Request: fold
Amino acid sequence: MPDEQWTDLDDERVAFEVLPENEPVKLTGAIRNVLTGDEDFHIVGEFVTPESRRAWGDFRAVGDALRRQEPLALVDAARQVPGARDVAYVWLIRLGSIGLITATQSVEIAFVFTWVWRPELGGWRLHAVGGAPEAPDRVPRTSPDVAPAIRSFLVS
Reply:
């Protein structure tokens, strides 16, 4: 039996698994799995903002778009901007664009999941999936700059 070695990928898997269930990165992984799998897409609607629900249709278009771009990697920390801690952005990047990511390395972003903290709905809700983040002023926010701490990077 060959020797097994612990790798950076193993570290990343553990870091992902210990994230709270209502964390934008963990939610993005779950939503992605549903949209790219054979499961019923209707469950995704429970995690979408009511204001954007109609625009999603039956979720097949975004599922098809995600499948066309596979393989993709889920970045393990959300991005947030000053003054909008209630909005979080989670990236899916093209796998061919990474090795070991350094602070100065650029990656090719395939999709950005834009999440908003909606305490009256029970937590983080998905507002949009696209090639770029939705600006906070275009997201239906009910608790501006107030949200629980998440694993994120503050960017300007």
Remarks:
- The chain has four helices and six strands.
